[in-house]
Description:
The protein has helices at residues 5-12, 21-37; strands at 56-57, 74-75. By secondary structure, it is mostly helical. It has a two-stranded antiparallel ribbon with strand order 1-2.
Amino acid sequence: GEHVLIPYAEMTGGQVFFPSAMAGLDRFFDELSEVLRTQYLLGFAPGPGAARDDFRTIEVRVKGGGYVVRHRKGYYPQPLP
């Protein structure tokens, strides 16, 4: 069951942690703390383009090396009210 979470995490830009027993919890919280301390939030306003039903892909690139970029792969535009 837990491996079902991996594709969802990848699609949404998340990360899956699998802490083991009590010894693994300390390491889990250390890793989680590192992830939360080193993240950025980017936003954008999409321009006109494809039809409302089309999936719009998001690409994030970073100059330099040694970075791990996690982001959602795209989105479906919300219908107008």
